[in-house]
Specification:
About 5% of the residues lie in helices and about 45% in strands. It has 2 helices and 12 strands; from the N terminus they run E-E-E-E-E-H-E-E-E-E-E-E-E-H. It is elongated and about 60 Å long.
Length: about 180
């Protein structure tokens, strides 16, 4: 399995008990989607290796306690800090204005006033709010990826319809 075909679910944070169980943090708002998980991919030195889950439970903090098949307590201890992945096909479908960051890469960006103005290259999430990084010719435009600016996401046509504040796009196009 290639990393490009997966998303990071979480990571192994520590051991649980002495029988080889681990505590895993899953980065999700909907942990119930993962209660019946049969397996995960573990990133071991850049390679995704499948591990089958023998037992799974949650603790009072919402973390998952996992026991992997054929993993000794010593092997489990070496897995602390390893990242966990699942195939992109495991993600539940979203509709309306909700989207996964990877999902909209390559979508055409269309503003209500200006019209089509570029293609989404990525969604950056390193600032106070996520930003659409849009390529308009040779210009890079950053647009806040917030509900107030998003009118519609048309997944069939691969378009994001926006209502940007007046002057925002022109600011980037003029180079000022």
């Amino acid at each position: 399995m290639r990393k490009e075909d997966c998303y990071q679910l979480g990571h192994i944070s520590r051991l649980h008990g002495y029988k080889g169980e681990v505590v895993a943090f899953f980065d999700t708002d909907q942990p119930q989607n993962y209660y019946e998980l049969e397996s995960v991919f573990v990133d071991i030195r850049g390679e995704l290796v499948p591990f089958f889950i023998e037992e799974s439970a949650t603790n009072s903090k919402g973390h998952f306690i996992l026991r992997f098949e054929d993993v000794t307590p010593e092997e489990a201890e070496r897995m602390i800090g390893y990242e966990l992945y699942l195939p992109l096909t495991f993600l539940p479908a979203l509709d309306g204005k909700k989207f996964y960051f990877h999902e909209v890469v390559g979508f055409t960006m269309i503003d209500a006033e200006i019209g089509e103005f570029g293609t989404c290259q990525e969604v950056m999430d390193s600032s106070a709010q996520p930003l659409f990084k849009v390529l308009d010719g040779d210009k890079e435009i950053l647009i806040p990826a917030v509900d107030d600016f998003i009118d519609q996401i048309d997944r069939d046509k691969k378009e994001i319809h926006l209502n940007c504040p007046p002057g925002l796009i022109e600011l980037y196009r003029s180079g000022e």
